[in-house]
Amino acid sequence: MNPYQQRKRWKYSLLAFAVVIASGSLFYTGYLVSSIKRSERTRAEIWALSIKQITASDDNDFLNYVFAVRDSLTVPAIIVDEKGVFITTKGLDSTKTYIQVPAVPGVADKHPKQYDPAYFKSQLEVMKVQHDPIRLKVFGDIWFVYYQDSFVLKQLKVFPYIQLSVIAIFLLVAYTAFNSSRKSEQNQVWVGLAKETAHQLGTPISSLMAWVELMKEKFNAEEDPLIAEMENDIKRLEIVADRFSKIGSKPVLEDHLVYEVVKDFVDYFKVRVSNKIHFELGGNHSLRAGLNVPLFDWVLENLLKNAVNAIENSGNIKVEISASKTRPQVYIDVTDSGKGIPRSKFETVFQPGYTTRKRGWGLGLSLTKRMIENYHNGQIFVKDSELGKGSTFRIVLKSITHDKQTTT
C-alpha cells in the first residue's frame, strides 16, 4: 500500500469514528428527550385531572392539594372545548396572553381582561403540532388539553447539534492548523534537501566538464558525436542542479516561444528512450508565454516519462500546442497511447505518494502540478483518458501577446 492510500484509509477511519461518536451523542440525547417528553406528558395529564377535580369538588382541604398539584406544572398549556372556545391557560406569556377591553356597561371601573386571539391562536397551533391533546370529560362536555415542550426540553433538543457544530469547527480549525504546520515542515525539508542536492552535484559536474575537455584535446575529438552527446548530458546535469537550487525561491519567468522551448526538450528526450516510441510535435509556432525554462523542462520531462511508462512496448506520444479561442491562454496537450487512467483517479494522480509502479515514489506529477500552479501561475489536469487507449494531460498557461504575433 502506497503512502497516499494509507493516509486516505486513516482519514476514512477517523471519519467513521467521528460519525460513531456523533451518532452515539444524538442517540443518547434522543433518549433523554423521549424520557423528558413522557414525564411532561404525565405531568400535563395530572394537571388536566386537577382542573377536572377543581371544577367538581367543594372540599377545601382537598382543593388546596389539587391547586398545589395544578400549579406544579411548568410547561405552557391551553384548555379548549369541542368548539375551540378558550377555557383556561397555564404558563403562557402574561404580557401577551391578555388584552384590555372596553369597560362593561353599568359596572363602574371594571375593565375585564380577555386573551389575545392572535397570540392564543399561534400558541395553540404550536401545541397541536407538538403533541396530541389530553381529553377530559367535564359535566358532560369534552375538553381538550394542549401543551408545549418545556424550555429545558427545547434546549435539550437543540443542544447536541450546537455541541457537534462547535466540536466540528474546533476540529476543522485544529486540522487546518496542524496540516498547514505539517506542510510547512515538509516544504522546509524538501527545500533543504533540494539545495543540498544541487550543492553536492556541483563538484562532479565541474569535474566531468573538465574531463570532457581533456578527452577532446588528447584524442582530437572536437567533432566526435559521442563526445557531443556526453556534453549534452553534462549540460543536462547542470540544468538538473539548477532546478534543485531554484526550489524554495520565486523563479523568474521570461518571455519565450512555447513551441521552441517544447521542441528543444522533445528533441533531447526522444533520443534517450526506445525507438519503438514515436514522438510527434505540432500546433501553433508563434504562441508566447512566461516560462522559467529549467523548471518548465522539468514539467515536460515528468509528463513525457509518465507517458513512456504508460506505454508497455511501442506507441505514440503527441505534444500539441494551441491557443484558447476565448481567453489569453496557451494550451499544451501531451497525449500518449498507453494504458490510460480510470476517471476516478483523475485528481488522485497528482497527490504525493500516488504511483502505479513498484519502484516509483509518486512525486513526479505532484511536483509537476506545483511547478505549473505555484511557479507559472497556470493549470494542469487530465483532459481525457480511456483505459487501454491512452491519456491526455493539458497544461494551461497565460499567453503573452505581441503586435506582430498571430494566433489561431
Task: Summarize the model shown.
With 408 residues, this protein is an alpha+beta fold.
What is the CATH homologous superfamily assignment of the largest domain? Answer: Histidine kinase-like ATPase, C-terminal domain
Detail the poorly predicted runs: 107-111, 403-408
**How many strands?**
13
What value does the Rg take, in angstroms?
A: 40 Å
Shape: elongated
Mean pLDDT, rounded to whole units? 80
Structural class call reads alpha+beta
User: Biggest sheet: strands side by side, in what order?
Assistant: 8-10-11-13-12
Largest sheet: 5 strands, mixed
Count up the helices: 9
Helix coverage percent: 40-55%
**Which CATH class of the largest domain is shown?**
Alpha Beta
> How much of the polypeptide forms β-strand, as a percent range?
15-25%
**What is the CATH third-level topology name of the largest domain?**
Heat Shock Protein 90
Order of helices and strands: HHEEHEEHEEHHEHEEHEEHEE
* Total domain units: 2
Separation, N- and C-terminal Cα atoms: 46 Å
CATH architecture assignment name of the largest domain = 2-Layer Sandwich
